[in-house]
């Protein structure tokens, strides 16, 4: 357990389970604040990699369970206007640790210790948003800052459709040869 406001290095997210594994149902609280590197997915990241961890480690028949939550704040762009936004997140954690873990389902117990680092990292990354909005009525980019040209606005375009054609994208050239029989 750590004191409030004190940062726990990622190397100290190893928890000794020898004592609680002696009795099924024995529990231990794990409270920590840590900073992990590389907590980002695409353009979204955890602010300063700082996470609050509030877990209960409990001996269960299969091994050890870790239940609780991981919280922090994320930062990234709005999907419409691209302005930076930030918001808090809470991620629920419910993981099982075993001596012989099932790949992709449970985590290993090694030398009577469990490593909460990968569990905390995974929970935080899965809590990052996919495509958030800065507000529900966000209209998108400011047209003064990000002007967009429409085909009808170009000088070579006239009402008859005649005018200079834009060069074709070579990635789509194979579609030009495609013909459909009726």
Structural commentary:
The structure is a single chain. The chain is mainly beta. It has a domain at 7-127. The protein has helices spanning 117-127, 173-176, and strands at residues 7-8, 14-16, 27-35, 40-41, 44-46, 50-59, 64-77, 84-98, 107-108, 113-115. Strands 1, 3, 4, 5, 6, 7, 8 and 9 form an eight-stranded mixed β-sheet that branches. Strand 7 (64-77) and strand 8 form a beta hairpin. The longest helix has 11 residues, at 117-127. It is elongated and about 80 Å long.
Instruction: Please write the string of helix (H) and strand (E) elements.
Output: EEEEEEEEEEHH
C-alpha-based Rg, rounded: 26 Å
Distance between the termini: 74 Å
Name the helicity range.
under 10%
Overall mean pLDDT stands at: 84
Q: Identify low-pLDDT runs.
A: none
Please state roughly what percent of the residues sit in beta strands, choosing from under 5%, 5-15%, 15-25%, 25-35%, 35-45% or over 45%: 25-35%
- Which structural class do you get from the secondary structure elements? mainly beta
Tell me about the largest β-sheet. Answer: 8 strands, mixed
Shape: elongated
Number of strands: 10
Query: How many separate helices?
Result: 2
Features:
single chain; 182 residues; mainly beta; 8-stranded mixed beta sheet; two-stranded antiparallel ribbon; 2 helices; 8% helix; 35% strand; elongated
């Amino acid at each position: 357990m750590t004191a409030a406001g004190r940062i726990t290095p990622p190397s100290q997210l190893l928890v000794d389970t020898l004592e609680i594994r002696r009795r099924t149902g024995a529990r231990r609280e794990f409270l920590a604040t840590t900073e992990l590197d590389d907590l980002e997915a695409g353009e979204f990241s955890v602010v300063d990699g700082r996470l609050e961890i509030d877990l209960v480690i409990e001996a269960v028949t299969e091994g050890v369970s870790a239940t609780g939550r991981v919280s922090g704040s994320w930062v990234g762009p709005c999907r419409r206007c691209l302005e930076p936004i930030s918001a808090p997140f809470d991620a629920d954690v419910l993981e099982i640790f075993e001596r012989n873990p099932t790949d992709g389902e449970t985590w290993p117990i090694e030398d009577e210790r469990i490593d909460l680092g990968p569990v905390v990292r995974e929970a935080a990354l899965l809590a990052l948003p996919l495509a958030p909005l800065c507000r529900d009525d966000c209209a998108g980019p400011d047209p003064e800052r990000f002007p967009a040209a429409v085909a009808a606005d170009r000088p070579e375009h006239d009402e008859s459709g005649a005018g200079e054609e834009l060069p074709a994208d070579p990635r789509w050239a194979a579609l030009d040869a495609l013909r459909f029989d009726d």
